[in-house]
Amino acid sequence: MELSKIGLCLGFLFFVFLHGVLADCSTATRKVHRYNFSLRETSFTRLCTTKRMLTVNGQWPGPKIQVCKGDTAFVHVHNAGKYGVTIHWHGVKQPRNPWSDGPENVTQCPIQPGKSFTYEVTFSDEEGTVWWHAHSDWSRATVHGAIVVLPSNGTTYPFRKPDAEKVLVLGEWYNGDLKEIIYNATETGAAPVESNAYTINGQPGFPNKCSKETTYRLRVQHGKTYLIRLINAVMNEEMFFGIANHTLRVVAQDGAYIKPITTNYIMTSPGQTMDILITANQPPSYYYIAASPFFDAGSIATYDSSNTSAILEYTGIFAPPASPPYPSLPNIRDRAAADKFTNRIRALASRAHPINVPKKIDKKLFMTVSLNQILCPGATCGGPDGNRLSSSLNNISFATSTIDILQAYYRSLPGVFTKDFPDRPPYVFNYTGDVGNNTLYTYQGTNVTMINYGAAVEIVFQGTNVESGEFHPMHLHGYSFYSVGTGYGNYDETTSPKTYNLKDPPEVNTVGLPRNGWVAIRFIANNPGVWFLHCHLERHASWGMGTVLIVKNGPTKETSIRPPPPNMPRCSN
Ligand code: C2O
Ligand code: CU
C-alpha cells in the first residue's frame, strides 16, 4: 500500500475514534464542541398546508447538540432569515456568562438578518436532557432542538445503560405564519389563535389529516431497552404522554436524576424534559406513542384539543396490525391524573448525585401570577370586555426594554430598568377565591429584583383567579431550583412551609404552578447575572408574565460576571 493510502486509512480511523469519544465520553477528554446554526426560512408541509417557516439548518426539530457533562459548546449562529432572532439554551446554567443566555432584550439584542453571533454554551452540573430554542417573539415554535448531556468520563448513568437512546420532541404546528399570529394578537389585544396540531419530532401523526404516511417511527428491537429523551417544546399547553402496552420508567427531569417512577403516562409542561426508559418487551408489532393536552384553565381560555402520535415499530417480520393499540391517556381536564404523576417526582439524591436544599432563607419573594386586562380606550380591543389581554407577576406586566437589561446593568446605563420589583403583592386579597375586580388591571414596567451573591432564596408563586385561573409552568434562567412545596388555594405563611419536602425535592428549571394554587422553590444565588424568570406558556409570556432577577457579583473574580465577548449583537437604538 502506498504511504498516502495508509495516511488516509489512519485519518479515517482517527475520525471514527473521535466520533466514538463524542458519543459516549468513555476515553480521552474532548471538552470543546463546535456547531454551526444557520437560521433560514424553509418550506414545510403538514396537514396538507405548505408554508415557509424559520428553522435551523432547514430542520424541524433542529439539530441535536451532544456533549459530556461539564463540556463547552461554541454555537455559531448565522441569521439568514428575515427577522432578528436570539437563541436560548434552556436548562444550561451558563455560570457567570449571562452574555450567552439568549432572551431577547434581557441579555442581548437580537442577531439581525445577515449577522452572526457565537454563543459559548457552558455546561456545569447538568446531566441528562436539556434543550435550546429561539427566544424572540414566537419563533421558538419552529426553532428548537435537543441538548443531550452524557455522564462525564469515568461516571455512568444511575441505572443500567440503555441499548440505545432516542430523542422525542413534542411541538406545535400552526398553519399560519407565527410572526403574523403574534403580531395580530398584539395589535388587537385578543388571544393568539391556537395551533392546528401537536407534533412528535415535527410530525402530527394519526389521526391528523394528511399525516398517515409521515408519522414518526421509533424503531426498536425486541428485548432491548431504550432511553427516550422527551422534550416539551409545545407553546401553550401541558401534555400527557404514553406508549400503548409499554411501561414508562421516568429516570430524570430537566437535566437532573430522579428516583425512578414506573407509570403508564406522564404529564409534562412546556419547557420541561423527561428521560424515560422503555423496554421493548411486547410481541413485535406496531404500537402508538401519543401525546394529548392537559388544560387546566377557565372557560375564556382556548386551546388545541387534538392528539399527536408516533409509532413504536418493532424490527423483524410480523403482519402489521390494521389498527395498532393506542395508549389510554387522561382526559384533557384531568387535574387529578396530572397531580398524581407530578406529586411522585423526587430527586434521586444519592451519594453520586447529591442535592443541597437551602434550609435557612436569606431572601424571600412572594409573587402573584395573574392574567389581567389593560384598559382599551372606548373598549374597542379584541380581548375580554373590549380590553387588551395582559398578564403579570405581583401586578407588574413585564415591559421589554429597548436595549438589553444585562448591558444596561453591566455598563450602568440609566433609564432601562428599575430595581424595585416588590417582594410581596401590592394588594392582599383572597387570591384564589371570588376575586371580583381586584388587580384586574395591571401596571406595565421593567422592574427587577436585586439579589446578593450567595443568598439562599425562596420564591413562592401564588396563582390567582384574576381574569381566569390557569396552570403556569414557571421557568428560571441561569439556575435549577428545588421545588419544595405545592398546594391548592392560598399559600399560608405558617401552615404551608410545614408541608415542604426538604429531603429530596425535585431539582428542576421549570415548575408547574397549579391553577389557583401555589408552589414554593428554593435555590442558592451562586450564579451572578441577569436572569429571566417567566411563564413558559408563550401566550402568557407575550402578555408580560415575566420578570428579571439580577444576582450581584460575589467578592472575587471567580464569583463575578465575565466580561462580554467581542461582537455581541448591536442594539439598533
Ligand atoms: Cu425555555 Cu426563557 O425559556
Ligand atoms: Cu402562564
Automatic annotation (TrEMBL):
GO BP of this protein: lignin catabolic process
UniProtKB keywords: Apoplast, Copper, Glycoprotein, Lignin degradation, Metal-binding, Oxidoreductase, Repeat, Secreted, Signal
Signal peptide residues on this chain, from the entry's feature table: 1-23
Domain Plastocyanin-like: 41-152, 166-316, 421-553
Catalyzed reaction equations: 4 hydroquinone + O2 = 4 benzosemiquinone + 2 H2O
Cellular component GO terms, alphabetical: apoplast
Function recorded in the entry: Lignin degradation and detoxification of lignin-derived products.
Family to which the UniProt record says this protein belongs: Belongs to the multicopper oxidase family.
Name assigned to this protein: Laccase
Organism: Juglans regia
Gene: LOC118348707
